[in-house]
Amino acid sequence: MIFNSFTFLAFFAVVLALHNLPLPWRWKKINLIGASYLFYAAWNPPFVILLWMSTITDWFVARRVDVATSQWNRRGWLGASLAVNLGLLGFFKYGTFLLDNWVALLGSLGIPFTAARPDIILPVGISFYTFQTLSYTLDIYFRRARPCNSFVDFALYVTFFPQLVAGPIVRSSQFLPQCSEPRGASIPNIAWGMMLLVIGLFQKVVVADGLLAPTVEWVYDGSWSPDTWSAWCGTLAFAGQILCDFSGYSSCAIGVAMCLGFRIPDNFRAPYAAIGFADFWRRWHISLSSWLRDYLYIPLGGNRRGARRTHVNLMLTMLIGGLWHGASWTFVFWGGLHGLYLVAERILRRVFASRVGPVGPPMRFVLMIVTFVLVCFTWVFFRAKTFENSFVVFAAMLGTTLDNARPLISTLNSWIVLLTVAAIVASHWLLRDTSLEQIVERLPWWLTALAIALMTMFIFTMPGEDRAFIYFQF
């Protein structure tokens, strides 16, 4: 069940109606838990068992960590949580990847080995809810929080369906306090939530799937090598597609949660207006980048142990962040490129900090464009299915094409991509230091209503293929 389906709209209408019945708050939470399990079971019912395992493990382990009197016991219980959660994640997401690399390693050593390929299905959203439950146990281990007193509240925290399968990754400190008292959305909140749902679906259905996805697939999934223009068009299209696809899901999740009276954090803040890569990761997939910062980068030492150790910590964090996205070396390479960008940025800032004065708006705009272009180069490795394909596209973007390279993009589609991506980047520049809420407050109500009406019309009339959200595969 996906947001861009009539099935979800019917499901959500029933959930919203039940949530607004005059029932005790505990029963409303139980209804939401049941709805969340139904929402998840729509993909593959047996995988609900994995949700139960994560819920029960971290509920029990967190309480044991809290009452343990010795550091040895605390670490032991934390290790149990890590073993269960990361063990499930490792088996389902990385089992085949590890086996393939083991076979390749033995082959490189001259040891022939053939293994039966396991038929492992990746449970949707396992990376998201695994990190979410782990953050709860880790917060208690680091004494940032106390265990939840209500199993119903904790089960709702783990399974809350708006952000269950593709985030944002919500911290327990952000969600559990909202469970203590009855949550009901006012008419303005429901209206704003519905507006976010429409905006998110517009980003997904119209922009990502309708305008940009065909160009991406022609370049990255076709049998012909792209020329330089096609490689740039395909990569720019993917930069827009991945943003609108994932940001669209996050907007839908935030909007649906708001209609139910809950608030979950923003996951994107105009990332293509970032000036530098530290700024980019403060704006892109905020819930993951902050998770990696708080539970990996800082525990590794952060920037407290000198420049060299800081650079190592940055590289390790980004490499693991890349691997989190998928069981492929191309994702690790993508994370590594971002790690190198962050290291280079720190070095350049240290070298030029005392030599360069305040940067004015024109130069800030130039730095934003440079950041965006360099981010686009990394998207090549995120989208390409193999290193061979990624290096072909990457080389074509630099002007080096293969003998069988050919134009893959029509003039019309080139203009569609360029105008769409330019509009995305320009809107991010305008939203860089403000928010959508502030802009809507300044607009006349009729203009906002007209914009939402047009978006709704385009959502229902957009031709083309329905595609799942990209981050479902992570």
Protein architecture, described:
- The structure is a single chain.
- By secondary structure, this protein is mainly alpha-helical.
- Helices cover 68% and strands 0% of the residues.
- It contains 18 helices and no strands.
- α8 runs antiparallel to α9 and α11 crosses α12 (307-325).
- The longest helix has 38 residues, at 71-108.
- The radius of gyration is 23 Å and the shape is globular.
- The two termini are 16 Å apart.
- The mean pLDDT is 88.
Average residue-wise pLDDT: 88
First-to-last CA distance: 16 Å
In the predicted model, the low-confidence regions spanning at least 5 consecutive residues are none
The DSSP helix count reads 18
Share of β-strand residues:
under 5%
Helix content class: 55-70%
Oligomeric state of shown chains: single chain
Number of strand elements = 0
Secondary-structure element string: HHHHHHHHHHHHHHHHHH
Class inferred from helices and paired strands:
mainly alpha
Overall geometry comes to globular
